[in-house]
Design goal:
This protein is mainly α. It contains 14 helices and two strands. The protein has a two-stranded antiparallel sheet. The chain starts with a helix and ends with a helix.
């Protein structure tokens, strides 16, 4: 493992222990939940469905805005994220897959893989379309800045709330622990479950050449990413819940952005795939 990757990862978890000193309040918990949901959307809708799979279109400024917002999740920049994810799809559940629980241990596929020196580098060969975008290449060099800015924002939100609403019994330090450390740590592991659990536990509607599964619980936790077998059947779709009963909150968020004119050309699932899967519900 690379100590430069391990230290901040462990530090994020240790920061959660600050709750022993700051305590808990309704404001702090609400902040943690809000920041979890917002940043999960930045990852699922833009890091994954846009930068990795180009499942819809948007303007260049908006794409960069969401790339910056995605960095607040602490999962590196969009180029690093997309390059390894594309490698995963090309070589899913083989020895060349960066994080398969079928070829390595649960813990390796869950967290250890990105703590290695090999995984630290961007796989430039997988992102020929993205490496030409100068602002994204620049962002990769400073991908830690939005994360630090987000931590500072959480602290000052807590300070503001403490001054404006003292009855909420919160503080800047409490908001930092809950809104930043706890929220980010939970976000980490919820995201990682798609790599480690969604290739082992769940149902297979489609006969894909990998071991991907649909898992409703993971879909709720990750705003729709748990419909992973669907996703491996047609990765380019803007939606991963292919049917009305498959909750996909990220897709609903993208539809809202479409109504606002911020995104367009959401790529649909081909009808023949929908019909083939319907008979295997």
């Amino acid at each position: 493992m690379d100590p430069w990757r391990l230290a901040p990862f462990v530090g994020m978890h240790l920061g959660c222990l600050g709750v022993l000193w700051t305590g808990i309040s309704g404001f702090a918990v609400a902040l943690a939940v809000l920041m979890y949901v917002a940043r999960m959307f930045f990852i699922t809708a833009f890091y994954h469905r846009y930068f990795s799979h180009r499942a819809f279109e948007s303007s260049r400024p908006l794409r960069f805005l969401f790339a910056v917002l995605g960095c607040t999740a602490g999962q590196r920049g969009p180029l690093w994220w997309a390059s390894h994810h594309r490698q995963h799809h090309i070589h899913s559940d083989t020895e060349l897959d960066p994080h398969s629980p079928q070829t390595d241990t649960f813990w390796f596929s869950h967290v250890l893989w990105f703590l290695t020196r090999d995984a630290f580098s961007i796989r430039w060969g997988q992102i020929g379309d993205l490496r030409k975008i100068r602002e994204l290449v620049w962002l990769e060099r400073v991908d830690w800045l939005p994360l630090v800015a987000f931590a500072v924002l959480c602290f000052f939100l807590g300070e503001w709330a403490a001054a404006a609403y003292p009855e909420w019994q919160t503080s800047g330090w409490q908001a930092l622990v809950w809104g930043f450390f706890i929220s980010t740590t939970v976000l980490y592991h919820a995201t990682y479950t798609i790599n480690s659990l969604a290739h082992r536990f769940g149902k297979r509607r489609f006969d894909t050449p990998d071991h991907s599964r649909n898992n409703a619980l993971l879909a709720v936790l990750t705003l729709g990413e748990g419909w992973h077998n669907n996703h491996h059947r047609f990765p380019g779709a803007a939606r991963q819940g292919f049917y009305w009963w498959e909750i996909d909150l990220s897709y609903l968020g993208l539809r809202l952005l479409r109504k606002l004119g911020l995104v367009w050309n959401l790529r649909p699932v081909p009808n023949n795939i929908i019909e083939a899967g319907r008979s295997r519900r």
